[in-house]
């Protein structure tokens, strides 16, 4: 998969990019967990989600946010990282002007960033949020949530406890016009040790079902 460098708000950002074969291929961006706790684009969950999209013909990008790896800049507590994600999506869209369909996926801190990006980009048709840490970050911006998506988490997660994720899901499920699917992976901690394959399979199943529904004209 090609290594790419593109311009972000604070300088260059490095990523890995897989181009779909179809000129109308949908696009996806995958966002990594907290950089101050070792989160990078090479995180195993980010890596697996990246290939999940690639295997389905997407043009997909994962990248290091500012200050991570060879990406320039300094950690900015989410504000700058959201700007980086927006720049990454702009770059991805500039290469895929005929694309039909746009998805955002993120893990932990990346799920928080991804859901903020979702609010700014009405073209996004779906999202996958893995273990969104509702207890650590403010998710009140999701009012209303603009598209349907999957929220998946582990029942043994101590970083993003199930009860806090449930609060987020319950809030989003009150909205009309979208469908939030919630799944819980039994025995999984925050890092899905021993459960990454199951997590990936569940996300892939959701993506396949949603895309089939969209293709059948059943909405977002």
From TrEMBL:
Q: Which organism is it from?
A: Devosia insulae DS-56
Report which superkingdom the organism of origin falls in.
Bacteria
Which parts of the chain span the membrane according to its record?
Answer: none
Q: Which GO terms describe its biological process?
A: proteolysis
- Tell me the GO molecular function terms: serine-type peptidase activity
Q: Which UniProt keywords apply?
A: Hydrolase
Quote the protein name from its UniProt record. Alpha/beta hydrolase
Q: Which Gene3D superfamilies match?
A: alpha/beta hydrolase
Q: Which residues form the Peptidase S9 prolyl oligopeptidase catalytic domain?
A: 145-207
Residues covered by the Xaa-Pro dipeptidyl-peptidase-like domain: 36-141
Q: Which InterPro entries match?
A: AB_hydrolase_fold, Peptidase_S9_cat, Xaa-Pro-like_dom
């Amino acid at each position: 998969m090609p290594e790419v460098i593109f311009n972000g708000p604070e300088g260059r950002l490095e990523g890995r990019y897989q181009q779909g074969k179809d000129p109308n291929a949908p696009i996806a961006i995958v966002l990594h967990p907290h950089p101050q706790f070792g989160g990078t684009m090479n995180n195993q969950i980010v890596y697996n989600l990246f290939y999940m999209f690639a295997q389905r013909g997407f043009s997909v990008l994962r990248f290091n946010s500012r200050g991570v790896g060879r990406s320039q800049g300094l950690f900015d507590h989410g504000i700058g990282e959201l700007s980086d994600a927006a720049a990454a999506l702009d770059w991805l869209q500039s290469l895929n002007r005929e694309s039909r369909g746009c998805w955002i996926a993120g893990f932990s801190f990346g799920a928080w960033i991804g859901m903020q990006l979702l609010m700014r980009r009405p073209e996004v048709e779906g999202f996958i949020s893995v273990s969104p840490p509702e207890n650590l970050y403010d998710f009140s911006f999701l009012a209303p949530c603009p598209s349907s998506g999957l929220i998946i988490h582990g029942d043994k997660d101590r970083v993003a406890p199930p009860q806090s994720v449930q609060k987020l899901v319950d809030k989003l499920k009150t909205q009309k016009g979208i469908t939030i699917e919630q799944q819980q992976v039994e025995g999984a901690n925050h890092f899905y040790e021993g459960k990454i394959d199951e997590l990936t399979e569940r996300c892939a199943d959701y993506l396949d079902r949603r895309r089939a529904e969209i293709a059948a004209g059943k909405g977002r």
